[in-house]
Design a protein that fits this description.
Layout (H helix, E strand, L loop, with lengths): L2 H35 L1 H8 L3 H8 L1 H21 L1 H21 L3 H15 L2 H12 L5 H30 L1 H22 L17 H12 L2 H13 L3 H5 L3 H9 L3 H29 L3 H20 L6 H10 L4 H8 L6 H29 L5 E2 L2 E2 L3 H8 L1 H13 L14 H6 L17
Antiparallel strand pairs: 1-2
Helix pairs in contact: 1-5, 1-6, 1-7, 1-8, 1-9, 3-18, 4-5, 4-6, 4-18, 5-6, 5-7, 5-9, 7-8, 7-18, 8-9, 8-14, 8-17, 10-18, 11-17, 11-18, 11-20, 13-14, 14-16, 15-16, 15-20, 17-18, 18-19
């Protein structure tokens, strides 16, 4: 292989591998939010209450996803992403197939559990690949790109999946999604690699078990990581508890949107996230700031959500703006990466992602319960119809949570885009990177 070909390979391969990890995250996001697209069909088929649908949509997925995050981070640090992501994608496809074939609510729950188990590896694996194959100065941008592709998966689920459901039924659509998981798993196994021979840190090996345990202790003993996870959790609420859970039904029942128009309008939130996440990552990397963009954008997102919830008329593009400004919460993963060394990056990201995803496990059932408490007994084609007052009361928990997150943000220390290493031995091993402790990192290629 010529020197030019080697240079091209060193330039393209890292981004191709990271893109595949991000694509798997996009696929799992499609599966995660799919119940919101088929809410009426599921509630009618299984005769579900709001609480039961809340459990099927949220906790049945998150109850396995959330506790798995620490274990996933440890496994990623110890064994690398290739085998784990391939196995995880197969689990997602298998869970989607079981969900599509179930005739009993309990079997559907098991299918969602399988999807949650496989999905638990997606974001951590994608960001672990970014930490292996890309320089630290690109991590916030890559995290934004990963989040962007995840939101595009959600957009696909909210539009194309809805068209498939309307034309073929929800069972056939989910079977086709399951077959897509098998294809993605084959591509992951064929392309992804665990070792980067060009990595600037010189780490050419998979982390030992002893290093994993040391990294676990290091991660769990940092209060700043826990606070970072809390603000990520509270700023992420608008996705699992609003956009994925009840936004289409809210738009249809309260604001008179047709079922198709409600799906398209909800897709604007995910499109806003897809546009905003890489943008805020790029801005954050450019100015070497993490906390300030998070605080400012979350404040704007809170204001936008209050306008949507408490005023009767608003321009449709406010849904796009909500997603655009709220997507800056992805920067919490850059903060976590910069507070930990490479060999425990997966564990740190796993901890943050676990705390972030608690929002999807706790708040959908809570909102569903509040909706049921304010339900007046109205049914439409066998599914419950809730009033504007019921939605206003139930969804008011979201701005309260986001406001609390703004307060917590004031206690997070700025990392200035610099990677922190845990001890002097590691710092000494990073001879070429020592300047990062005294000045913001400068841009460099792979």
């Amino acid at each position: 292989m010529t020197a030019r070909a080697m240079n091209m390979r060193a330039l393209i391969l890292p981004w191709a591998i990271c893109a595949l990890g991000a694509f798997f995250y996009s696929y799992e996001c499609l599966l995660r939010m799919s119940p919101s697209v088929m809410q009426d069909s599921l509630m009618r088929f299984y005769s579900l209450t709001g609480v039961q649908y809340g459990y099927l949509s949220g906790p049945s997925y998150y109850v396995i996803y959330v506790p798995m995050q620490i274990m996933v981070g440890l496994l990623m640090d110890r064994y690398g992403p290739r085998r784990l992501l391939t196995m995880a994608c197969l689990f997602c496809g298998g869970g989607a197939w079981l969900f599509a074939c179930s005739h009993n609510w309990m079997y559907a729950l098991i299918g969602r559990l399988m999807i949650g188990f496989g999905s638990a590896f997606a974001f951590v694996g994608a960001t672990k690949l970014a930490s292996i194959w890309l320089p630290p100065q690109r991590f916030a941008l890559m995290s934004g790109i990963v989040f962007c592709l995840g939101m595009l998966g959600a957009v696909f689920g909210d539009t194309i999946l809805r068209l498939l459901i309307d034309s073929q039924g929800w069972r056939t659509a989910m079977r086709e999604a399951a077959c897509g998981g098998l294809l993605v798993s084959i591509i992951l196994w064929s392309v992804v690699r665990d070792v980067n021979p060009w990595h600037e840190s010189g780490q050419h090996h998979v982390t030992t078990f002893r290093e994993v345990l040391v990294g676990l202790w290091h991660v769990f003993s940092k209060p700043q990581l826990w606070l970072t996870g809390i603000i990520g959790c509270l700023f992420y609420l608008f996705l699992p508890a609003f956009a994925e859970f009840c936004a289409p039904a809210w738009l249809h029942q309260v604001h008179g949107f047709s079922s198709m128009d409600a799906g398209h309008a909800t897709a604007l939130i995910f499109i806003g996230c897809a546009c905003g996440a890489p943008f805020w990552g790029m801005i954050s990397d450019r100015f070497h700031r993490r906390c300030m963009p998070i605080f400012i954008t979350a404040s704007v997102g809170l204001l936008i959500f209050c306008v949507l919830l408490y005023t009767p008329n608003w321009p449709i593009m406010l849904l796009f703006a909500l997603g655009f400004f709220s997507s800056a919460q992805v920067l919490v993963f850059a903060i976590a990466r910069e507070q930990t060394p490479l060999h425990s990056a997966g564990t740190a990201i796993g901890l943050i992602n676990m705390i972030v995803m608690i929002s999807g496990m706790v708040f959908p059932p809570l909102i569903g319960k509040l909706l049921d408490l304010n339900w007046h007994g109205l049914l439409e084609h066998g599914s419950r119809v809730y009033s504007q007052h019921a939605y206003t009361v139930a969804l008011s928990v979201l701005p309260i949570g986001i406001f609390i997150g703004l307060i917590v943000t004031l206690f997070i220390r700025e990392t200035f885009g610099r990677v922190h290493y845990a001890d002097s031995t590691q710092a000494a091993a990073q001879g070429n990177n020592a300047k990062r402790f005294s000045q913001p990192a400068t841009e460099s290629g792979v």
